[in-house]
Amino acid sequence: MANPLPNKHTYGTQSDAFAAENDLHRRSIAKERNLSLGAKPLGDDGGHNSADDLLEAMGYKAELIRSRSTLQVAFMSFVLASIPYGLATTLYYPLVGGGPADIIWGWVAVSLIILCVAASLGEITSVYPTSGGVYYQTFMLAAPSYRLIMSWICGWAFVVGNITITLAVNFGTTLFFAACINVFETEPEVGIFAAEPYQIYLIFFAITILCNVVSALGNKWLPYLDTFAIFWTFAGLICIVVCVLAIAKNGRNDAAYVF
Q1: pTM for this model (two decimals)
Q2: For 60-190, where are the alpha helices, taking DSSP H only?
Q3: 81 vs 226: CA distance, rounded Å
Q4: Which of 13, 37, 59, 169 is in the most buried spot, having the most CB atoms within 10 Å?
């Protein structure tokens, strides 16, 4: 996290952030932190301006340890998308509700919308790169008359959204896990796992506890977990593509049917 510094700097606009990035807090090479990211030389004195300097100029002290490389951050983002998981748990609904055309054009339309959102958030985050994220950015961009209430609403909506999304993913993982067990059948249409409601709840509860323990106590191992997960994700995606192509030989439709 980043803690506010006591009245040392008063920044809040894009011009202030730009000034902080280019003119303030030149750090000498001898005092440069090893964990600083992307520091660039400034001036003739050999000083450097790092991400920590920019945060300090905005009134915050860096607290989080930057233990991930750029590649590991990219891995983490890709893993969060979780393509195999998303396909396994949600592909059924557009297939039944709209068919192939719904999947194709829905994917195109939603992808364009998400790209616009990602570009906007990336631009804003590059100006206000704090751990507060969206609620801090809302405070900085909103009009002074209602910035407090807007950032408060945004912050709590973000917290509630993260909690509900995490629980929804854990519950979906529970159902997926139970379905994977029942791939093995004692007889046709009869799985080996009864999956009673209380069993589903206990599995869901165990997965939630495990995720919280890993996040709270295993922070230093998370980059390695992300690196492992990216290869696991690619393996799952390749398996899905190969299996779909192999099964599709039983009957294919022309392009007019798909589009």
Answers
A1: 0.65
A2: 70-81, 83-90, 92-97, 100-127, 134-141, 147-181
A3: 12
A4: 59
